[in-house]
Hints:
This protein is mainly alpha-helical. Helices cover 77% and strands 3% of the residues. The protein has helices at 2-20, 33-49, 53-76, 88-122; strands at 79-80, 84-85. Helix 1 packs antiparallel against helix 4 (88-122). This is DUF4383 domain-containing protein.
Amino acid sequence: MPKFWSQIFGGVLTLYGIAGFFLSSSELFQLNPTHNIVHLVSGLLFLGAGRKESWNQLAMKVLGIFYGLLAIMGLFSDQLFSLLDITLITEIVYFLIALGALYIGFAYEHTTKDEEKTEQSNV
Length: 123
């Protein structure tokens, strides 16, 4: 199950990062090359981490914290480090990514460890 969500997050962020280079900004989403690169890199990290369970757990936690920090910092400034334009909808999306990734990263951690123990005892 965590691999599935890693692929979903990764696919959506990667496509959004690529599309951002070809689409213009709107009132809802402010797009710039830095923003697109952040989405593209984090999407590829989600996709790559989805290949191995232990990497997936770590990636979910790290990227969840990263997107959570971006969302929190966006509450205090519309421009992060003069690189990323943050709108209200962007903050909401980042909070949702953070909550989903952190939930999956921590909630499924015990499930996968229990499954590994069961597999080892069956061998």
